[in-house]
Write a structure and sequence with these properties.
By secondary structure, the chain is of the alpha+beta class. It has a domain at 3-93: Ribosomal protein S16 (S16 Ribosomal Protein, Chain: A). 65% of the residues lie in helices and 18% in strands. It contains four helices and five strands; from the N terminus they run ββββαβααα. α3 packs antiparallel against α4.
């Protein structure tokens, strides 16, 4: 039986995630499987991979062929490198301890690289947040100045209206006082 290590789609429309499975190459994509060895969620940033390393090593070691996407996932997780190193041990090129030492060095280098990338992304997010905050503060200052200007104009208009009303009232009072004097004459 020809076995494949491939992805089986799960989830719902517009939110697919995948199980990493070992299956007969003749079975349908989401059909009968031999074993589930992990999961892959491309919807997160970065994509989340949960893999049973030992079982993946076993299936790659007995000849299961990964699809292209799964080969990339296995390479990122180090399964393909470990298979290569175990081949070197079998040929006598180096010892098991040396193979483990090389694998650990590769893993440490990869984690350091990923740490730098995630730190750079975090720094970008912080810088973008600071820029957005500064822009919002400037917009708020402009709005506050505009509101203060409108309030100033409104208070000036009210003051002018009050002065006019006072003048009209004074004029009416003057007319009212002048009228009885005119009647008296």
């Amino acid at each position: 039986m020809a076995t494949k290590i491939r992805l089986a789609r799960h989830g719902h429309k517009d939110y697919a995630y995948y199980h990493i499975v070992v299956a007969d190459s003749r079975s349908p994509r989401d059909g009968k499987i031999i074993e589930r060895i992990g999961s892959f969620n491309p919807n997160t940033n970065p994509a989340t991979v949960d893999l049973n390393f030992d079982r993946a090593m076993y299936w790659v070691g007995v000849g299961a062929q990964p699809t292209d996407t799964v080969r990339n996932i296995l390479s990122d997780e180090g399964v393909m490198l470990m298979k290569h190193l175990k081949g070197g041990v079998a040929k006598g090129a180096f010892s098991e301890e040396e193979a483990q030492k090389r694998f650990d060095a590769w893993k440490a280098q990869k984690e350091a690289k990923n740490g730098k990338i995630s730190k750079a992304e975090a720094d970008k997010k912080v810088a973008a947040a600071k820029a957005a905050l500064a822009q919002e503060v400037e917009a708020n200052k402009a709005k506050a100045a505009e509101v203060a200007k409108k309030r100033q104009e409104a208070s000036e208009a009210l003051a002018a209206a009050a002065v006019e009303a006072a003048q009209e009232a004074a004029a009416e009072n003057a007319d009212a006082e002048a009228a009885p004097e005119a009647q008296a004459e």
